[in-house]
Amino acid sequence: MNIVDYLKAILExxxxxxxxxxxxxxSFIIFLIMKLLFDFIQRKDFFDWLTVLLVILxxxxxxxxxxxxxxxxxxxxxxxxxxxxxxxxxSLKHDLDVIKKRTEQARYRKYILNLSGKKxxxxxxxxxxxxGRDFLPDLxxxxxxxxxHDVIVSTTHYTHFLHPSGKLDEQKETSHLYILTxxxxxxxxxxxxxxxxx
Length: 198
Known about the structure:
Strand order of the largest sheet: 1-3-2
Largest sheet: 3 strands, antiparallel
Order of helices and strands: HHHHEHEEHH
Oligomer: single chain
Distance between the termini: 110 Å
């Protein structure tokens, strides 16, 4: 074997996994100690080409194994930091969503509890109706406002106001059947004293 073959063997050894390089370093150290003992017993010179090659292999493989362990540890730390940062961002987003939802619910409750005038009368009519529904005029501003604030919803049933003569009264608007939304009914159930009819 010439020197080029030895260099190829060293380069191939450097491509081994970390655990194999460490086991080779340990094996070379054991071999070096055994060689030292045999050379000492036989009174030979310890420093020959094999010893120098083994020392170089031990140093190079040991150094690359330590460097790879350090790099792997650093990448694991960075990966863990990234995972923790993503968890923190998800937690923060979740917390912000919860705060936003609770704020919206508080505004919704406040809107319903602050109803007055004709809007309150309309909502009371629906709340106190045996079936929880009633016909409300579509073109009324109060009806529109209650729909926009998700307090009531329209069904597909509608009727026309009739003149006492039995003809369609053009001057009055068309009405739809409206019902309370479940969220509005829940708020009203918790505050029955305000929405119960006298």
